[in-house]
Amino acid sequence: MTDRDALLAAIIARPEDDLPRLVFADWLEEHGESARATFIRAQIAGDDAAAADFLREHKADWDRELPEWATWQDTKVVYRRGFVAELVTTTRRLLRDGHELFAVAPVHAVRLRPQVHFSDSTPELFEDRPYYSRITSLRLGPRLLNIAPLRGANRDPLDIYFLAVAQNLNALRVLDVSENNLTDDWATRFAHRFRLMAFRRALAEMDLSDNEITDTGADVLCLVLQGVRLRLRGNRITSAAAERLRRRFGERVEV
């Protein structure tokens, strides 16, 4: 392992710590890569204007350090604090190739979007992968969920089934399932399976905005997902129920 590889491995192992990133920036400076070093420091310092200028000028070069597919049309990567932190792609790409990007970048946020031939990969949605343990923020959709066939004796939608069995998804803090036409049935099934999900203790926020959930589904979610901040704006919740939820759960529930 080279010095560069060792420094990058330290960043991946400690993604919340700025110190390994700054040490890497110093190493880059010493080895003639001052633009990348300055970019890392600028993003960490919150100097968005300077960071944007460097990224605009050098992103194509820095992207060459990533797997080739990370720059293809169906995928986008987002740099934060100097390194790729977010992956926007399809389920097929994540399942087939995701390990390559997670091996070279401190990715912690994933946004999955539909693909043209959705049914080709739906049965694999959330099939467990070791690198899922690094995902702390997951966006599913829009229009990605609640359209898969039901599975097994309990007849759960496939997305709920795989969320329940993906044991490596244990660090997930933010789950965004907004804009998926989710109904009370989906909300109730999710709530009933929540205790089986590996991320049940880590989850801090769930965004269910702009779905088709009514008072019934909202009540179940609020009662079962205790301690989780729920965003329920843009659903079919009556004003009376919204006021009742605000009185009972306060700022934890946004309706």
Can you give keywords for this protein?
255 residues; two-stranded antiparallel ribbon; 10 helices; 10 strands; 15% strand
Give Rg in angstroms. Answer: 20 Å
Strand order of the largest sheet: 1-2-3-4-7-8-9-10
How many strands, which pairing sense, and closed or not: the largest β-sheet? 8 strands, mixed
The total beta strand count reads 10
Strand content: 5-15%
Order of helices and strands: HHHHEEHEHEEEHEHEHEHE
Name the poorly predicted regions: 117-121
Number of helices: 10
Helices and strands: which structural class? alpha/beta
Mean pLDDT reading: 91
Distance between the termini: 51 Å
The coarse overall form would be elongated
Query: How much helical structure, as a percent, in the residues?
Result: 40-55%
Quick summary:
The protein has about 260 residues and is of the alpha/beta class.
Description:
With 255 residues, the chain is α/β, with parallel strands linked by helices. It contains ten helices and ten strands. An eight-stranded mixed beta sheet has the order 1-2-3-4-7-8-9-10. Strands 5-6 form a two-stranded antiparallel ribbon. Helix 1 packs antiparallel against helix 2 and helix 2 packs antiparallel against helix 3. It starts with a helix and ends with a strand. About 2% of the residues have low confidence.
Topology:
Layout: H1 3-13, H2 19-30, H3 34-45, H4 48-63, E1 76-80, E2 83-90, H5 91-102, E3 109-113, H6 118-121, E4 137-140, E5 150-151, E6 156-157, H7 158-165, E7 174-176, H8 184-193, E8 205-207, H9 215-224, E9 229-231, H10 239-249, E10 253-254
Parallel strand pairs: 2-3, 3-4, 4-7, 7-8, 8-9, 9-10
Antiparallel strand pairs: 1-2, 5-6
